[in-house]
């Protein structure tokens, strides 16, 4: 519409404003404008309309009121009126308000407004109608008015229209109304208002009557507005810019011609492409909307920037994106794979891929000497070598380089001498010149030697070639195709000579100058010396004069004064000789002649070619033919040895006639760890006979930067020291031969050659080199050779550290003139000149420091944080720290003291405890192994099964129920109590004092009995036998005599048992007699280390339960006989008789220990003997009497019962055959099915965590020769000795060392190196020794007391079997009731495993004949034959002799420490040491060792008595293997020797260490207490 | 010397198309932060929701940091994986969110995404499982030109973190 009448725009705007503001203003304006009110008002906006409605309501209200007041008697009109207000009330809320005010409105106004509302209906119809007839160009005044008033208020209008439409369409009444209204509206368009009103009133009145019920429900027709109407309205509301092109003049300011910049030659970018119509529309809009022309440019077009859009889509299609992706955004398609448990915590940790690859390319082999070389070959090789050297030198051309350098230096000196810059201080120039000169001197010397070398090399080449030629002539055949051609290069004689002469002259002049300088210096020195000498002379003379004049008498003292300086008497200096120029020249010329080409002489260039022809076989002499045949028979192959293991080998290739072998093979080694060594072994095969190892070539392990494709082929030389003499033309190797006929000038050549190879790291699929992480690298591996390369010498990181770099450069003396070093030098000069500030540090987040709250130190100082960290790291001391104080001040410094002390002492202890270095090393190694194993298990621990995480109580089924019901009916037998199963307690919620070790001591047998003290009055020789195990069976002749020394001793012995555990001591009451019965329960509290009751911690408790048996002796101390009647004064003394030691770990894993144990009684127990006769007399258990030793019956358990840690279910990788592994599994499940409780062992874990088949551990191994030599003719004695040796190796259970339950089997050599192991290692070693001694021996897996599951060794003697306990060295017969082994699970031999399938498993009741398949199920059988597994054991054990001196030193130290300890344990008493006794004991201990604790009774005793007759003596030797000091101390402590507090007690302590091979030490400790007899 | 306790749990994940989900998580901090106790990273169990689509892990997070600066406030990286019926695992989404810095309990929703890969890879993923994974995990939180990476939205990991701050006021941090 605007386009139709655009000129109206000016009028439009004020009207808009008005219509927006106040509807009332319109009404007010209507008057003055005198426009017909009827059509105009009806089309106003919502506000206006609502106002109108309001007015109408008011009017209605007023009217109804008036009516009600006026016509109260007529009720009819009211309902009529009510209808419309109700309807309208929905539309507006103003109604009520207005209604109040409406009363004032006058009647006339009422009618007037009402008529407006009427008109509305009419008007809407009207509007459509006139639109058709009226042409577009000529709007009627009404329409124009309507347009203006409605233009910007469209929405309310629509909402308003709808209800109207609804009313029209909805109900009949309304329609009627509408219909009725319309015709009059049309007709009465120009009629009076009054008429209309009356007609309407009437209708309303009529309609209202019918619809009184619908006053509250408004039924409205659906609002509808015809499309035309809407279009019409939209046209009125919307501005549609025209699409017609705007003439240029409109867009430009007045009277301005359009200007086209492009035509003027200025660049205008491409305008964005916009369709013409769009542009036009835009321009039109801009022109109408914003009359300014700021949007238009000089050319009359819309201003536009150059087109920013790209011709192609900016988002590339997915297919093409691959190439330009950024590294960090790379994605890798990973297959969905089963989860690998090791790489669990992937975020952050980034596990290494695991597989690394080393590519070894062996391209070939060239022999520089070989036994089959003929003489000619030797020469040829020499020639080739020389030629290579020549070529290499030629390439470097050092002589030329040095000559140039010399020239340059000379020039520099020249310019320095004639300074062009006078301002430069003379001093510096002089200095520089001096420096130059010295450099010239050096360079010249170097050049001379280089030139000389070049020349001699050339000479040698020619000489060798001549020799070769003569040889060829002499032998009349040719073997090698080598041919040397000397090419002469003409030179310009004149120029050459001139240059030569100039050079010589220059040199001479320099030399002369040097000499002059030297001369001058010497002169100077001479003059100075001369002056001095003169002065001295003068002084001397003067002195002499003086002396003569003044002190003629005191000549002597003066001389005495002078005499101290006789050496200072200066010799009269000799003036130096000036140099002779002629002589210098002579020298220079001589040297030049020697080392340089003569002027004019042609340059000789040797060229070696292979153009020569080889004489064919037929023309050669027989020896030569033989040689060639021999060569043909030979072939070579190379083995690749990685970390001392053969990994692959090349094909065998025949040796060529030119002694070159081409392999061209590439080996890809998949490795896990950083390689330790890489070796190539060159093997030679002659014919079909055996192969010989020619040489080993050690290859360097490549740098991490060397990857496949970049590695150059390198030649590595090798040589062998093999001696070969051949019966043909070949010169052999390692044997002298000569080229001369007379045999003089002999040469000895060794086989040697070069292997050309390249070693590089492979590159993975994604381009990442497969290099093991550098952390695995050995740091010490870096060799000094690498100094030459900056990166390898200081590491890549060093390159960023300029200071380090500069330092390196200074150290390595880089040649600053070398162009290779140019960038480096520049960098260094910048760094060193201080031009740029080089900070000492490198910081990632530079601003971090500024924003820090506190410094690092302060953070680290915080005690709270430290404590928290230590706790979370599970440092033992703090692991169980429950609550950490919130403030630093609440944390005491002493909390850390222990920890710090431990840290400090860590190293000290190592040197102190492990007195010999070997053990310290072993301890360290063990620590490492332990750590790695623990790490492995930590990983394995994450491998949970469902049952680990979900506890599901089993639903009782009918059989269980039935059983328990049956139990109820069972007879109660209170006199036969049974042990009830206890509830197991998991270890986590325990604290100190919750756990107790219960020891029930029941009875003991055969306790040694006292012997009357052998006083000096008694004959010592007549005293009874001391207790001795081996002779126990022999009848004792002694009958006990009760001595007066035991006034109260009614019995032979009064034993009591003392149990000590973790330094807590409990003891039983005292019983009497050698077979006491206590039946007492002792309770010992258990304290876990650091209060940590976790399973791992409990497993590693190393404490032992010591069960000591003491004899209580009462002594009468009554001094005065007169008091005897009235009082008793006795002193109780206790004497240690023996002990049983049970490790806590055993109790922990066994849950209970129940059985009879042999008491460990010292070999010598002074004052006691084993009283056998009594027992026999009584006839008490005659079976026992047969056995040797004393026994104690015990029951030990832990209260509450703890759940031992579960063994780790970890499938270790294995190198065993897959089939074998399957067979083992099958075998084990079969066995477990039949006898679930019998131990069946097929595979074990070795120390590196790999699964190994168990028979591989068994193999005959040589015991130390020393032991074999000891008793050469008694196999039994040897066996015992060997067993003893094995038992002397300290026992260390795996569970202690490797916190989790796992059996690690170390091989025997590892075991001997570690000097620690548990039953298996001991048993394996013993079994291997027995096998090598020619016995039939098996490893016997079973369970014993107190160890639980363990390994013993079974041997077959002629007729019977012996069971050996490898840890103690004792052996038992098969039918020995006291054999600790209680059940046998399986036997393991070197080639088979037999599982016990007999009904019983007690060794007493089973048959050890493994050949019977009904009794023993064998692993390898006919169906699965023994594949011949190689052993993991070494070929041979090598025993080093133990250092005796070290042992002696250790012995002294142990003695000292033990003495100190005993004094420490007696803080309130004085500890006196009886030296006399100590020395006696010291002498005695070696005897004990020699006899292995047997048969050393009387002599010793007698001797002691002789020496210490007036002492009452009680003491015993202890014998232990040596591992650490702590167990020794613990053992001494447990004997309680220190507990004697008799005032005049004295002590004696002696230590003896007997060294066995391989650092196995047998420690004897003799402790004794002495009390002087009154 | 300020201390931050982060105590909470990874509630679970919702909105993933895969059903059996588990989550690997890790907390990264700047250089100024020191972990006093707790574990920085972990992995949840596999949860196969029976009702609804939310996989619940209720995986505890308990960290105690000491810090000397605000830089490098701890942030959480999450990787949601799904396990198929063969027990194979494949990536379902990467996620990243900062640990809130105000004390109190916070409910966090961490949206996740995963690389889409080429159409071949998408096809392979649909049929044989697996899927493209980032070679360098840094891209999850680094500002590389990530528009080169075409990703698909994963679901949302729901976290509930409680924060305790200590001594921040001492250094003027409110």
From TrEMBL, chain A:
Residues 1015-1026 have a biased composition (Polar residues). Residues 996-1156 form the C2 domain. InterPro entries: C2_dom, C2_domain_sf, CC2D2AN-C2, CEP76_C, CEPT76/DRC7_peptidase-like_dom, DUF5523, Tectonic-like_complex_comp. The lineage of its organism: Eukaryota, Metazoa, Chordata, Craniata, Vertebrata. This is Coiled-coil and C2 domain-containing protein 2A isoform X3. Residues 392-453, 501-532 form a coiled coil. The keyword Transcription regulation does not apply. Residues 50-66, 86-110, 187-196, 550-559 have a biased composition (Basic and acidic residues). Pfam families: CC2D2AN-C2, CEP76_C, CEPT76_peptidase, DUF5523. One of its GO terms (cellular component) is ciliary transition zone. GO terms for biological process: non-motile cilium assembly; protein localization to ciliary transition zone. It comes from Mustela putorius furo. It comes from the Eukaryota. Residues 1-117, 152-196, 542-607, 1013-1044 are annotated as: Disordered. Residues 173-183 have a biased composition (Acidic residues). Keywords: Coiled coil.
UniProtKB/TrEMBL annotation, chain B:
The keyword Lipid biosynthesis does not apply. One of its GO terms (cellular component) is MKS complex. The keyword Cytoplasm applies. Keywords: Cell projection, Cilium biogenesis/degradation, Cytoplasm, Cytoskeleton. Transmembrane segments: none annotated. GO terms for biological process: cilium assembly. PROSITE patterns: C2_B9. It comes from the Eukaryota. Belongs to the B9D family. PANTHER family: B9 DOMAIN-CONTAINING (PTHR12968), B9 DOMAIN-CONTAINING PROTEIN 2 (PTHR12968:SF2). Component of the tectonic-like complex, a complex localized at the transition zone of primary cilia and acting as a barrier that prevents diffusion of transmembrane proteins between the cilia and plasma membranes. This is B9 domain-containing protein 2. It comes from Mustela putorius furo (European domestic ferret).
